[in-house]
Amino acid sequence: MAHSDAAAAWKEVTPHLNSLGLRICETPTAGRGVVASHSIARDVVVEISPVLLFAADEYQAHGRHTQLDSYTFVWEKRANGSTMALALGLGSLFNHSTHANVSYQLNRAAQCIQFRTVRDIAAGEELCICYGAGKMWWETDDTPNTPPATETDECTLFGQMDLADADDTSSSDTLQSPTYVRAPVDTDAPLWRITASPDPHTMPLDTMLAWALDAEPRNCASVARVLQALTKDKVIQSGAQLRHLRTFRKACEVTRVGSDENKLPGNDKTDRLAVLVAAYGPQSRDELVALLAPALGDLAVPELYLVRVPVCAAPSRTRLAEWASVWPCIFLPPGAGLATGNALPGSDAARAATLVDRAQDAARWQSPCATDWIRAGFARCLKTACAAQAAGEIGCAAFVTEAPDAQGQVAIALDANDTRTRDGHPLRHAVPNAVRAVAEWRAARRTAPVEGVAANGQDYLLTGLSLFLTHEPGRAACLGGEDGGPYAIHEQSGLNHHYDVWRWVDPNAFPEARGLASAIALDL
Questions:
Q1: Which residue has the higher pLDDT, 273 or 463?
Q2: Structural domains of the chain sorted by starting position, each given as residue range(s) with its CATH number in brackets
Q3: Residue 72 Cα distances to 83, 87, 131, 152, angstroms
Q4: What is the longest distance spanned by two Cα atoms in the chain?
Q5: Are 32 and 25 contacting, i.e. CB atoms less than 8 angstroms apart?
Q6: pTM recorded for the entire structure
Q7: Would the pLDDT of 352 be above 60?
Q8: DSSP β-bridge partners for residue 405
Q9: What average pLDDT does this structure show over 371-382?
Q10: Contact in structure between 224 and 293 (CB atoms under 8 Å)
Q11: What is the pLDDT of residue 181?
């Protein structure tokens, strides 16, 4: 947030210490900004900023009259005003872009903000976040508006209502438990990402039922405040499910849905606005009417009716019109996640799923340079599996290595195969054997003089390494969920590390695989 009217002249580079070597530099048009000094991969946490909070009365009396007003934002809305926050560290120096390369997530419990890259960033590129929708305070009148980006864009739209729970630290929307998608037969890419995350270009528009009522335009702001208070106090139990939706819509544009699913036309002669109240299910119509009647008074007639609304926010700006035709809503900014519902605790369906663009995935593997070393890794893995099978073991193998450096050299290259037959042990699968081999290799290396600079976490689990497999381990070994069922440990939100899983689409392309007795699934 480097846009400020302050007359101070910043130095070209402001000294700063951080683990990724980020630089604070003067930008041509936006004051100071955060710039990458070297390339940064996608999905890397680049900053965790603590926040300094200001009570509503304190900020109104003092803070808004100072330069703080250009850097603070609403942290939490309360009945007596909004708590404002100032991001410390690099948090206040990320400039705005409608095509942000960094996403952020508020952690109200820990009073901090986590910033994470949403794509690969090149050296010298500025790191930007999306402040939100609408015209920014520094933009001129001829600057084109952009659609709203998040539900917490502070009242940039008429009648917008913040339904976020004060105790809820997630900024994601709600999506039904996704299907774990396997590699299709018609893909042109050699590798297919194994993930439950939907593709923003192909994910279906799912809808749910919600309660709405009509209100006069002059009363809408007051009605919104009443509904917000009832939702915050949990009198209305399902308001948080609607936070990705706009609160108001012209009543004449609304299609009412009866309980028998027969659509009833709305009144096309009224100038009233339809107001979204709650999701269908947690409370009955009669219960909601009994709660709303005394709270609304003469502001609106609590005659509730059912409407259909999108289950989640639009996955991209290009599909916003499709979603908004059902009910006006927001679209997900780059890197935002969809919180999935109806999920087993701890399963992949319980995490916040970042959308996966399959077209971008396919483009990533079109270059032979990107796939040659992967092809070689699978070929080596298959050779080990064939040798194990010839020795009387089960034909499963693993190969651990790292991406080659500029000279094509790698520091580690270890093979392992299944030894359940030899050892008579059900857990002697190739994967734990490979992990054991890495541990032994690292233990031996610690006795030798250390070369180069050690990096924090470099020897933690398989950090920085690639694991090639001929077969996905069984559920007892790693909760693979029968080749990609409801569990997928690489997509658990509670883990303190992250990795991707890719499958080679056509294992028949490897002649080494023809001698194996069991069908293979080449995973990376």
A1: 273
A2: 13-131 (2.170.270.10), 174-356 (no CATH), 367-515 (3.40.140)
A3: 10, 7, 12, 14
A4: 84
A5: yes
A6: 0.56
A7: no
A8: none
A9: 86
A10: no
A11: 44
Measure Cα distances from 180 to 81, 186, 197, 349, 485 in Å. 44, 17, 8, 9, 7
Contact 319, 219 (CB under 8 A): no
Q: What is the mean pLDDT of the chain?
A: 73
Pairwise CA distance, residues 362 & 334, whole Å = 19
Spatial separation of the C-alpha atoms in residues 170 and 266, rounded to whole Å: 35
Token pair in block for residue 518:
């069991």
| Cβ within 8 Å of residue 37, ≥6 positions away | 21, 22, 23, 123, 124
**pLDDT band (50, 70, 90) for residue 8:** very low
The alpha carbon of residue 513 and the mean position of all alpha carbons in its chain are separated, in whole angstroms, by: 37
pLDDT tens track for 129-183: 877 654 554 455 555 544 433 333 332 232 333 333 333 333 333 333 334 344 4
Q: Which helix (H) or strand (E) holds 371?
A: helix 368-390
Sheet containing 255-257, strands listed edge to edge, beginning at the edge strand earlier in sequence: 248-250, 273-279, 207-215, 305-310, 255-257, 263-265
CA distances from 384 to 163, 233, 395 (A): 56, 61, 8
| 24-47 residue pLDDT tens | 888 877 778 999 999 998 878 899
Q: How confident is the model at residue 193 (pLDDT cuts 50, 70, 90)?
A: confident
The residue written with tokens 């070209």 in the block is: 12
Q: Coil, helix or strand for 385?
A: helix
Q: Which of 3-7, 184-188, 366-370 has the highest mean pLDDT?
A: 366-370
Q: What residue ranges in 372-422 does DSSP mark as E strands?
A: 397-401, 413-417
Bridge partner list, 212:
276, 305
Residues with Cβ within 8 Å of residue 416, at least 6 apart in sequence: 384, 397, 398, 399, 400, 430, 431, 433, 434, 436, 437
One DSSP character per residue, 334-364 reads: TT-EEEE-S--TTSGGGSEEEP--HHHHHHH
CA 36 to chain centre: 22
Q: 333: which residues sit within 8 A by CB, 6+ positions away?
A: 100, 103, 130, 149, 150
Nearest alpha-carbon partner for 387 in 419, 358, 355:
419
Tens of pLDDT, residues 445-468: 776 665 555 554 556 666 778 888
| Percent above pLDDT 70 for the chain | 69
d(CA 229, CA 36): 43
Ramachandran angles phi, psi of 106, nearest 5°: -80, 130
Residues 6+ apart with CB under 8 A from 467: 398, 399, 400, 431, 434, 524
pLDDT at 126: 92
